[in-house]
Amino acid sequence: MSTRTLPLLFINLGGEMLYILDQRLRAQNIPADKAKKVMNDIITTMFNKKFLEELFKPQELYSKKALRTVFDRLAHASIMRLNQASMDKLYDLMTMAFKYQVLLCPRPKDILLVSFNHMDAIRDFVKDTPSILSQVDETNKQLVEIYTPLSGGEFQLIRQTLLIFFQDMHIRVSIFLKDKVQNSNGRFVLPTSGPVPYGTHTPGLIRMFSCSGEEVRRMQFRDGGNYCGALREGSFEMYGDRVIKLGTNMYSVSRPVETHMSGTSKNSSQHTKVNTTPNPLAKEELNLLARLMGGLEVQKSANTDSGFRVNLFATDEEEETNRPMQSWLRSWGSLERWENLPPVPAARVTTSWP
Amino acid sequence: MSKMYHKEKSIQLKSSASALYNNLSVLRIAPRCLTYFTVVHANVVNMVSASWDGLNYSHRQLQSKEGNVATSSSLIMQAAWCVLPSRDLLVLTSQKGIQMYESDGSIMVYWHALDTPETPTAKAVFARGIAAVREKYICVGVSSGSVLVFDVPSKGSNITLSEVLEEHKEAITDMASECSGNLECIADLVSADDSGLLCVWKSGEDFQLLNKIPGFDTSCSSVKLWKGTVIAGYGTGQIRLYEGVTGILLAEVNAHARWIYSLDIAPFTGLLISAAEDSWVRVWHLSLTPETNSVEIEHMYNECVTDTQICGARFCDGDGYAFAVTGYDLSEIIRYTQA
C-alpha cells in the first residue's frame, strides 16, 4: 500500500527499542560510560547516512521476518549482547508498543507527532555527542520535509499499511495490562471519552439547511460517549511541543521493572502468521537493509572488554550484570507464563490515555 | 426506552478484518435464503455464505492476483458485489488491478491490470471504490483519481473498459450508485476522493459530469447516493448530505469522534448506518421532501463495539431490519437485528 511507511515504522520501533534498552541498562546498573556507549553506538548505526538513504526510498513495507532481521542487527551494533529469548521479547514489546500508538492516534497525521516524540527523545539521548546529534537532526529534517506535506488521506493509508503489518498481534504486555490500556485478551482499550482529534467536532450536533444555505433546524443527539473538545495541535516543526503523549518514554526509572511477557491470546489461530511462501525478492530485501546494518563498523575502544550481556525482562532483585547463562535461564524459567488464560470479557470504558 | 436493535450470533471468519474503508460487502440471495458476506484481510478476501435459518455456514477465500512478476503480495483494498439486472459480480480491487468473479467467487471472469511502475513511486498505486451503475456498468476508482468504467455484458467474460473519467486529482476512496431504484433520478453515480471532492455523474455511452462538490480539506472515506441525495462520511467524523445535481448542502452532522469508515443506506426505509474508528455504529433516519428540496435526518440508535475500530457496516436487507459490522483485528462479523 503506502510506499512511505517503512521509515516511520523503522524510526518508531527503533525509538521504542532505545527506551527499553535505556531502562534496562539503568535497572541493571550497567556503568554509565558503558551504557552511554551502547546507546550511542546503536543510535549511530540507526541513523547511518547510507542506511537511511535506502530506507527513505519509496518502497513497500518489509515482511515481518525481514524487519526483524534488521532490528536483530541493530540491537547488536554495540558491545551489548542479547540472547535469542531476550531479543524475541524486546521485539515483541517494541512492536506492541508501536501498534498501540498507531491504533490510538487521534488522527492519522498524529503518527508523525508520535515519530517526532521518538526523535525528540533520541536527540536527548545523544545531546552530548555532536557528531551523532547532527545525524539525528538531519533525519529529523528529512522527516519534516517528506511527511508534513502529506494529506490526511495519505496518512490514513500509511496508518492502514501499518495496521496490516501489526494485524493479529495480541501479545500481552505487563506494563500495558497494569495501566489498563490492554485487556487480558491482548486487545487494546479504546476509550469512548476524552478529547476529540484536532479538526473534529465533538459528536452531537445535527444542522439542516434550506436551498439558500440558511440553517433551518438544529438538533442534538445523544452520542453515548464522553467526549470533550480537541487539544491544541502539536508542532510539526523540528522543535516544538508535540502535545500528544503517545511515543514518549513510558519506561521511567521509578517504574516497577516486572515486564515479563506473556504468550499470545487464546485464539492462537489468529496469531501472527509469518509469510512463508517462497519469494525470490524476499531474500533481496532481507539482505539489503540488513546487510547495510550488519556491515556497519562500530568503533570499539582499544581497551575494550568483551561484550556484556543485558538481560531483559527479569525483576531487578533477580538480576546482576554478567550473570552466568545457566542462572539467567533459571530466573527466566521461574517467571509466570500467561498461557491460554480463559478469555475475560473486555473492559468497557476505562481511562482515557493521553 | 427499549433498544431498536439487539445483537445476534456472530459469524466467524477465517481471518480478521483489515483496517480498510468499507470493509464489508453483503449480498442477499432471497431465492436461496442465503446471505453472502465478504471481508478483506490483507491479500485475501474471506467469503462466508450464511443460510437464513442460521444453521449453515460455508467459507471461501479468494486471493489477490499477483500479476506476472513475483513481487511482494498485492494487498486488496476493497471487495464488493455489483448487482446488475442480469447478473451479480464480485469485484476485488488491489494494488495490481481489478478482478471480477461470478458472485459466488467460483470463477474469475475478468482481470484488468493497473499500470504499476517498475520501481515504487512516492504515490502508491492501487484501485479502490466500486459501484454497479444502471444496467451494464461497473465503475472502479484508482489511486490516480481516475474512474474506470467497464461495460458488462449480460453474461460471459467479454467485459471491456469503456471509458476513463478524469476529474479527481486525488486517490478515489469510495463510489456509490443511485440505490433507490427510482429510474427518474438524474444522477447515477457519485465518486469521492482523499481531498473530500465529490463528483456526481450521469451514466451512458459517455458519462456526464453533473456536478463537482468541493471538499473541505478532509478525506471523504465513504459515500452513498439515495433519491438524488449524496450522503458522505469524512475523516473528521462528519456526515454531510448534499443535493446531488445542484451540490446544495442539506445537512451536516457531527456524527463521530474519529474517522468514518463505512456508510450504508436501506433504500426502502431511508435508514442510514454510519460506523467509525471511534467504536460507534449509529443508525439514522432520512426523510426527503422533494418539493422543498429539504431533508430531515433523525438519530435513531447507537451501538458501541467495545475496543474495536470499526471498518465495515452494512444493512443486510433493503429495509434495514438487520445490519452487520466488521472491525480491525476482529475475526467475526457481528450482527444485529431489530428487536
Automatic annotation (TrEMBL), chain A:
It comes from the Eukaryota. Residues 259-278 are annotated as: Disordered. It holds the Pfam family Oscp1. One of its GO terms (cellular component) is plasma membrane. InterPro entries: OSCP1. Residues 261-278 have a biased composition (Polar residues). PANTHER family: OXIDORED-NITRO DOMAIN-CONTAINING PROTEIN, PROTEIN OSCP1. This is Organic solute carrier partner 1. It comes from Cyprinus carpio carpio.
UniProtKB/TrEMBL annotation, chain B:
It comes from the Eukaryota. Keywords: Repeat, WD repeat. It comes from Cyprinus carpio carpio. Transmembrane segments: none annotated. This is WD repeat domain 54. Residues 4-337 form the WD repeat-containing protein 54 beta-propeller domain. GO terms for biological process: cilium assembly. WD repeats lie at residues 253-294. Pfam families: WDR54 (PF21031). One of its GO terms (cellular component) is ciliary basal body. InterPro entries: WD40/YVTN_repeat-like_dom_sf (IPR015943), WD40_repeat_dom_sf (IPR036322), WD40_rpt (IPR001680), WDR54_beta_prop (IPR049546), WDR55/POC1 (IPR050505).
